[in-house]
Amino acid sequence: MTHLSVPRDYASTLVQATADSTLLGTYTPLPDASPVAAIRRYFRKYAVFFGRASRSEYWWIVLLSTVVYGVGGALAGATQITTAGVSHFGGVITEVSIGAGLIGTFLLVYFLATILPTISLSVRRLHDVGLSGWFVFLGLVPILGSITLFVLFLLSSNPAGQRFDKR
């Protein structure tokens, strides 16, 4: 039976390597992120405006939000249509149904809960491209600002973005 010898400083080296990888994992982009990893990191870095985010991190969250708003909007619309009707006086009932109101409230809560992490994710994505996070304010410019941000979010990582990593 052979015994493996472990150097005495192995444990401290392992602890240091783990701390370094955890630190690096926090500030560097996560290339080829899975949907679960991207969502976990999105909520874990709720209000972190330094560091970088990869394209996959960003686009998985965009897909998640699109699905949540799409399904929620479709359900609210379907609920509203099925409960709409004609009043006794011949007019169309335009009141919001309880179901559509509840779904709308859920979507509002989802929006409020995700606005800050979405902005921070956008800033980190711009950092990964090598740009300042202040470019996120381009989204306030009607039409052209959103198109410009869309193109910037599509760009690949730029090594110049490392300057935004916390050291």
TrEMBL record:
Transmembrane segments: 58-77, 89-113, 133-155
GO cellular component terms, semicolon-separated: plasma membrane
Pfam family, one: DUF805
InterPro entries: DUF805 (IPR008523)
Keywords tagged on the record: Membrane, Transmembrane, Transmembrane helix
Domain of life: Bacteria
UniProt protein name: Uncharacterized membrane protein YhaH, DUF805 family
Species: Brevibacterium aurantiacum
